[in-house]
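Same chain as my last thread, 427 residues:
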Amino acid sequence: MTVILANSNLDLKKDRLLALLLVCSAFFVALVGWYPPYQTGLYIASCELVFVMTFFLFNQTIDALNFLFKNKLLLWLSILWYFFFNASYIQLFFQNASSFQIYIATLSYLFTSMHLIFFLCIISFFAKSKYSNGLSLNPVALSNLIIVYIFYLIINSGIVIPESFLLHSPPFASNIRYIGYLFTIGSLTSVLWLLTKQFNDRFFILYGFIALVNLSFLVWLGGRTAIASVYISLFFLLFYLRKYKELNYKKIFFLTGLIITSLIIAYQTSIYSWNGMGWFISHLGVDGEFDVNRFSSNRLAIWSVSINAIKESPWLGFGPNGYYFIQGHFFGLHPHNMVLQFFLDWGVIGGVIFLLILLYSILKGVILLVTTNNSSLALALLIISGLTLHGLTDGTYYHAQPVFYLLLAFALIPASLLKEQHAFALK
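reply #2:
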C-alpha cells in the first residue's frame, strides 16, 4: 500500500483529510432524507461538490480518465451513453415541454452531472489512498442506530402519532420505504463485518448487536423488496465466503439464529398496519381473493403505463425525470423499476447502454474479487447487489441517498483495478 501511495500526488495529511471528509459525508448523507427528494438531492450534491473541490485543491490528475481511455469497450459505451444522456435533455427545448418540466429536467440533469464528476474523483482518490476504501461504506450501519433510537423515542413518547404521519413523514425520510434503502446497506455491511470476524474477537458481540438492530428494523419497516434483496445478497455472500474464504458452519448457524431473532423482534414490535410481517399478509388480496396488483402496491399498473409511454418515445425517452411527465402518470416520482426508469429518461438505446456499463462493471468486480479476495471490494459488490435487486421494484437508482452509496461502491471496482495495475507495474 505504501508503494502505491508513493506513486500518487497525495501526501499522508491530504490523504487522511480526504478520507475523513468522505466518511463524514457518508454518515451525514444517511441522516438528511427527511426533506423532499429534490432538497435531499441538493444537500447530497453539496457534499459531493465539497469533496470534488477539496480533491482538486489537493490533486490535479484524474486517474479515472486514464483508466477509461485504456479500456476501449468501456470508453465507447460511456461516450454513447453520454450522447443519449445529453440528447434526451436537449430534445425538450425543441418540443412543447412545459417550463415546469424543463425546470425539473434541468435539476435532474445537473444532479446527474454532479454525480458523474464526483464519481470520477472518488475513483481517482480510492486508487491513490492508503486507507481502506471500504471505510466510506461503513458509516451507514452506525448511522442507522441513531435512526432506530429516534424512532424508539418518538413511538414511546406517549404522544399519539397518526399512522399516516410515520408512513409519509417519518424521521429521516419523506417516505417510510426510503429508510429501507439505508437498512439494506446497513444490514449487508454489518453482516459482512460479523462473518469476517472470529468468535474470539473482542468486538464480535458488538458486531452481532449492530447486525441484529439493522436486520430487525429492516423487517420492521415492512419493505418486501428490501428484505428480499438483503436475503438474496446474503446468499451470494455466504457462497463467496464458503468457496473462496473461511466460513465454518458455526457462523452460518449464528447468522441463521440472528435472522430468526430479528424476525421475532420485528413481529413483536410491529404496531402499525403498514409495517412488519403482518403487512405482507394484509396485501395478499381483497375478500379472500389474491390481487397481484394490490400485492405489488400498484406497481403493475405503474409498469404498464411506463411501458406504453416507452413505446411512444423509444429513441430518446422523455428526458431527465421523464416518468413524472408521461401520459397516464398517476403515482410516484419514478416507475419503481430501474430498467424502465433508464428507458424513460434516455430512451431504449441509452438505457440498454447504461445497463451494459453496469453489467460490465459488476462482472469486472466479481472477477477481481475472486482473484484478490479484497474485503473492500466484497463489501462494494454486496451493496451493489442489494441496491440493484431492490431497484427492480423501487427507486434505488433514482433517489440521491442510495445513488450516493452506489457511486462509492461502483467506484471501488475501477479503483481496485488501478491499484492492481500499479502494484503489478512495480514488480
